[in-house]
Amino acid sequence: MNNKNKATFLDALVPIIFLIVSLTYAIMILDVSPHIPLFTSAMVATLIGIFRLKFKWSEIEEGIVETIKMSMSAIIILMIIGMVIGTWILAGIVPTMIYYGLNILSPHIFLIATVLICSIVSLATGSSWTTVGTVGIALIGVGTSLGIPIEIIGGAIISGSYFGDKMSPLSDTTNLAPAMAGSNLFDHIRHMAYTTVPSYIITLILFGVIGFNYVGNDINSESLNVILNGLISNFNISPILLLAPALVILIVIKRIPAIPGLFSGVVIGGAFAFIFQGSDIGNIVNAAHSGYTTVTNITILDELLIRGGLSSMMGTVSLILCAMTFGGVMEKTGMLRAVAEKILKFATNTGNLVLSTILTSIAMNMVAGDQYLAIVIPGRMFKDAYADHNLDPKNLSRVLEDSATLTSPLIPWNTCGAFMITTLGLAPFTYIPYCFLNILNPIISIIYGYTGFSMKSLNIETDM
Fold first, then answer.
1. Domain boundaries in the chain?
2. Residue 275 and residue 137 in contact, taking contact as beta carbons nearer than 8 Å
3. Distance (Å, rounded) from C-alpha 270 to C-alpha 463?
4. Whole-model pTM?
5. By the 8 A CB rule, do 45 and 333 touch?
6. By percentage, how much of the chain surpasses pLDDT 70?
7. Is 145 within 8 Å of 102 (Cβ atoms)?
8. Distance of CA 24 to the CA centre of its chain
9. DSSP letters along 148-194, please?
10. How many CB atoms lie within 10 A of CB 131?
11. Cα separation, 159 vs 401, whole angstroms
């Protein structure tokens, strides 16, 4: 190890610039997926690691594998969510949620209701992914039926889901951030309220204003009846089917691990499909693997319901693997650390320190492609800097969540962004302007850093 060269900021810039240029060209010009640019960028980083930094391929490969291991839980959850979606549509669970949603919700309150519903479910489960993969897809169906653009609905779903994910003690990122910063879990959650509550209130107001733009967009009774009758004709609609999401939420609340807990949703979906829709085992297995495929000849229903299945998530899985490959090379060769150290030089005061932490976390989300790395690496890098500035560790843990957790779904090749796009059927980038909570939270955190509001010193024991 002694004969290796230490990665410099310039070393790191080469693969990062290559990644940015290739991703921009692929997505904006060629209109193709980011998979190949990500993987090619990983190979560029590998060449620098071998020929410039003197790493062996076996060492870089080890770093790639270790980084991919960090995302394996997310990949398995992603595949299970695909199975949940397929079986829940076959079972009539999602159609039932859409049916009752159309009967209850109207356009001017829909977006606020969406944020609140997703917040509650995510708080209860501690998982934005579970929320998006269950009630989220139903809300997409209801909202598009009411004439609201899907990118706006997606923004409301993501905003609500990430509020609950961030503030829930059951969330993995909510536990990881204080662990990296050296703060207490519940001190961390209370401290996050300073930035999260104002962001949340503004988010609700903005969606309320947007909702009034669709007051006149109520679908006429004829169109509504076509959708409702189509649901009734193709599925046995019953409020009993709403027990399925309630049971899954209860299972997660009981602290059953995410993977077996979510797979119970597949089992419940299969059982409900057999009992309530008369589906046989073959249909259930096919729905779990390939998604719901029955054509109703009602265009809007087919667009809403023909989706899901494990196989539908394979494109996203491969995207995550490509992103993790790039992140693994950058982490193993020390190039990620070189970027963080360069940014750290600008942290001359509290405001600059907070800004540096947020920019680093966002950069890690973009470069490493995973929110866990975006919490772990800056957490390790900035822990001593916060202590040097006489700042309580809960300041760092809050900033990590304000940035790493909340910006992860805004990046299409990040594990979270890829999941949101695939599950909700969103086009990359189009939904970002409507993820108000995710955009506002880092901005408010930066403002607090420069004003000093709620930035607790090490010698202050109580919150302001």
1. 71-313
2. no
3. 49
4. 0.74
5. yes
6. 95
7. yes
8. 21
9. --HHHHHHHHHHHHHHHHHH-TT-HHHHHHHHHHT--HHHHHHHHHH
10. 29
11. 14
Indicate if the pLDDT at residue 276 is higher than 90: yes
Long-range contacts of 46-49 (CB under 8 A, 24+ apart): 46/329, 48/11, 48/14, 48/15, 48/333, 48/335, 49/329, 49/332, 49/333, 49/335
- Number of residues written out for the chain: 464
Among the listed residues 243, 244, 248, 247, the one whose alpha carbon sits nearest the alpha carbon of residue 77? 248
* CA–CA separation, 134 and 262 (whole Å): 10
Which single residue is written with the structure tokens 């998604």?
Answer: 291
Spatial neighbors of 422 by CB under 8 A, at least 6 apart, are 312, 313, 315, 316
**What is the C-alpha to C-alpha distance for residues 427 and 235, in angstroms, rounded to an integer?**
29
In the block, which residue shows the tokens 């997310």?
Answer: 74
**DSSP per-residue string spanning 250-308:** HHHHTT--HHHHHHHHHHHHHHHHHHHS---HHHHHHHHHH------S-HHHHHHHS--
The per-residue pLDDT for range 94-141, each reduced to its tens digit, is 888 888 877 777 788 899 999 998 998 888 667 888 788 878 888 888
Q: If we measure between CA atoms, which residue out of 309, 257, 263, 270 comes closest to residue 125?
A: 257
Q: What is the dihedral of CA 323, 311, 256, 321, to 10 degrees?
A: -10
List of long-range contacts for 293-299, beta carbons under 8 Å, 24+ apart: 294/234, 296/230, 296/233, 296/234, 298/226, 298/227, 298/230
What tokens appear for 406 in the block? 């909340």
CA atoms within 13 A on the CB side of 103: 12
